[in-house]
Every structure is written in structure tokens, then in C-alpha cells.
Design goal:
It contains twelve helices and 13 strands. It is α/β, with parallel strands linked by helices and 370 residues long. The structure holds pyridoxal-5'-phosphate (PLP).
Length: 370
């Protein structure tokens, strides 16, 4: 029995009628960029997050870039972000013309270590981009305090945290703006590339909308040079059909994570993910830290269990950032974790039996080899 890492087909089958009718009615309307499905998704997603504006864009990476550019961040500026993330978080800082400055993660929750942020702030620092990684929020209240103290923009990377909560605060609602990815495998995923930005700031919202649409809010009135990054109508229709299920899907992921935690408890070679007190994580990924990782991965593969690693190398140690001359000692926690983390299958449709099978393979591996 093959257990896939994510099972997008199972999710499609569970809501096939809604998806099919959303797609066919969009084709029927023959509006493929803009139109009703986009407008209604933007409104529905903003409402779900509890903010004033949502701007649909081409993908999650663009959403970060558009925020940075619209805030006027560029050449000569520095932006602080976290060492363990997907490269979109930092490559967009460089694309905007600024310099990414990396901070290590704290040991328990894989999010930015707030005690190490202030030492990285200089006169050039303009913004902080924390990432709510794996579906768990960073300490957004404390990061917000730091931003206020030093007059910095707070931009939240919510690509892995749709509707996650921290002390009753929803992901993406604390900072000046937040970026979302609706890549197919994300908790809310389209059937192609898609992204979105949320904000409560009216003037920033219209600037971002303009920048993402060739610098024009009205056709042919280009106030500035922008880019072409729009959420197309078919993707918006798919997202609209899926959005009503998001909370239920997030809850099922959490339930699956708790079952994993239970079944993997008391194996001394494994550290299961911890949940920050007073938070509601949405478990985009289920990441454990293990001993003899590469051997375990071989064993899981042999049992036809698909796994992944997020991420095999932390950002500052990637070839792309060689010019920054970092060493693993600069990021002791995340650099040491990169060789011991493994992401086990995680999605709402994953069954208890599948989780029991996966965890039994893991348990057997350590029993036999210890
Ligand atoms: C997926 C992801 C992105 C980028 O999203 P795309 O839609 O793939 O461009 C950005 N940041 C993080 C943390 C992500 O996981």
C-alpha cells in the first residue's frame, strides 16, 4: 500500500461536484482574468481572515515581492527573516533590491528566535518577515513589539499557515500585510499557481493591486511600472469552492498530528512536533526530528511511504547565499536540525490506519536497530 506524501486526488474526489461546477461555470462565463469568481474569492478570504482587503496574485512568491515593492523597500535596505524557510521568503527580498539578513530558529517550534532579532537590526533595516512555518505561528505579538520599537514593517509569510491562530490572533492580521500561497499542496491550494495578500491598510492595498496589474488600477492609466501577477478566474473559482472546507481540513490535520504524536511517543530517537501554548496550529507539515535520519528514510521508502525534508539545507547555507559567507555556527539550531528533520505524510484525508502503519514502520526501525 503506497502512502503518498500528499493526496490531492482524494481531496478532489471528496468535493468533485463543487469543483467541477465551479470550473465549468467559469468557462461558461468566459472571463478568465478578473471577473466574479476572483472578486468573490477576495472578499471571502478577507472575511475568513478577518481583514479588510485581499488581493489575489499569481503565486505566493510574488505576493511577498509585491508587498516589499509597494512598501518602497529596495536598494540599500535590509530585511530580517528566518534561516529555515522556503527560498521565496528571501529571494524576494533580493529581487526587491534589498539584502536578506537571516536569524536562527528557536529550538522547540521551528520559528524565528525572537531573542536573536535585535542584534541583527541596523540603521538599514526596514522590515521583518517571520514565517509561520509548518502551520505554526511565530511569536507574532513579541515580533510586533520589536517592529514598533525600531519602526520596522512587519510582513508575515503565511504560505503555510492559512487560518492558524496564536492567542486568538489569526495569521496575517498583525503586520502591515501578509503573503499567502495557494500552491496546490498548501492547506488551501488551487489547481495551479496562485497567491494572495491580505492587509487592513487601504492605501497600501490599492498600491499593491496597482503594482500587480502593470501599475494601473484603470486600464491604460499606468501610474507606475508594475508587473503582471494576477490570480486567474479558474484558480479563484477552485479556491472559492474549497474555502468553506478549510477549517474542517485544518482540524483534521491537527487531529492527525495528535495521533502521530501519540503513536510516536516514548521513542527516544524521535522528537515529535510541539504545540506552542495557546495556539492553534494547522499542521501544513508534520516534521519530526530523528536519529539516523537517512537510514530511516530508506526504511520508509522501502515500505512505500513517501516522505520529504523541509528543508534539506537552511537558506543561508545554500549556494545562492554563498556571498554572505555564513557558516553553520552562525545558525546553530537550524543548521543542526537540517540533518535530522523529516516530514511524514500529512493531509486531511490521511486515515488513522495509514498513520498507524507509518508509525509502526518507524517504531520497528528503531526497535530492530537499537
Ligand atoms: C510555498 C511557500 C512560498 C511561496 O509560494 P509559491 O506559491 O510557491 O510561490 C513562500 N513561503 C513559504 C514559507 C512557502 O512555503
Amino acid at each position: 500500500m503506497i502512502i503518498p506524501f500528499v493526496d490531492l486526488k482524494a481531496q478532489y474526489l471528496s468535493i468533485k461536484k463543487d469543483i467541477d461546477s465551479a470550473i465549468f461555470s467559469t468557462i461558461d462565463q468566459a472571463t478568465f482574468v478578473g471577473g466574479e469568481s476572483l472578486k468573490s474569492f477576495e472578499k471571502n478570504f478577507a472575511d475568513a481572515c478577518g481583514v479588510k482587503h485581499c488581493i489575489g496574485v499569481g503565486n505566493g512568491t510574488d505576493s511577498i515581492y509585491i508587498i516589499l515593492k509597494s512598501l518602497g523597500i529596495g536598494i540599500g535596505d535590509e530585511v530580517i527573516t528566518v534561516a529555515n524557510s522556503w527560498i521565496s521568503t528571501s529571494e524576494t527580498i533580493s529581487q526587491a533590491g534589498a539584502k536578506p539578513v537571516f536569524v536562527d530558529i528557536e529550538p522547540d517550534y521551528f520559528t524565528i528566535d525572537i531573542s536573536k532579532i535585535e542584534q541583527k537590526i541596523t540603521s538599514k533595516t526596514k522590515a521583518i518577515i517571520p514565517v509561520h512555518l509548518y502551520g505554526q505561528m511565530a511569536e507574532i505579538d513579541k515580533i510586533s513589539d520589536i517592529c514598533k520599537k525600531y519602526n520596522l514593517y512587519l510582513i508575515e509569510d503565511c504560505a503555510q499557515s492559512h487560518l492558524a491562530e496564536y492567542k486568538g490572533i489569526k495569521a496575517g492580521t498583525t503586520g502591515i500585510a501578509a503573503s499567502f500561497s495557494f500552491y496546490p499542496g498548501k492547506n488551501l491550494g488551487a489547481y495551479g499557481d496562485a497567491g494572495g495578500i491580505i492587509t487592513n491598510d487601504d492605501s497600501l492595498a490599492s498600491k499593491m493591486r496597482m503594482f500587480a496589474n502593470h501599475g494601473a488600477l484603470i486600464k491604460h492609466q499606468h501610474e507606475i511600472e508594475g508587473i503582471n501577477s494576477r490570480l486567474d478566474s479558474l484558480q479563484a473559482a477552485v479556491l472559492n469552492a474549497k474555502l468553506p472546507h478549510l477549517t474542517d481540513w485544518n482540524n483534521r490535520r491537527l487531529k492527525n498530528a495528535l495521533l502521530y504524536n501519540d503513536l510516536l511517543a516514548n521513542i527516544k530517537e524521535i522528537v515529535t512536533p510541539q504545540i506552542r501554548p495557546d495556539t492553534k496550529p494547522i499542521f501544513h507539515l508534520y516534521v519530526v526530528r530523528v536519529e539516523r535520519r537517512d537510514e530511516l528514510i530508506k526504511q520508509l521508502n522501502k515500505a512505500e511511504i513517501q516522505i520529504a525534508v523541509h528543508y534539506p539545507r537552511i537558506l543561508p547555507l545554500l549556494p545562492a547565499y554563498k556571498y554572505l559567507n555564513h557558516t553553520p555556527q552562525d545558525f546553530p539550531v537550524s543548521a543542526s536540525y537540517q540533518n535530522s528533520i523529516v516530514s511524514l505524510p500529512m493531509y486531511p484525508e490521511l486515515t488513522a490506519d495509514q498513520i498507524k502503519f507509518i508509525t509502526s514502520v518507524v517504531r520497528d526501525f528503531y526497535r530492530k536497530s537499537s
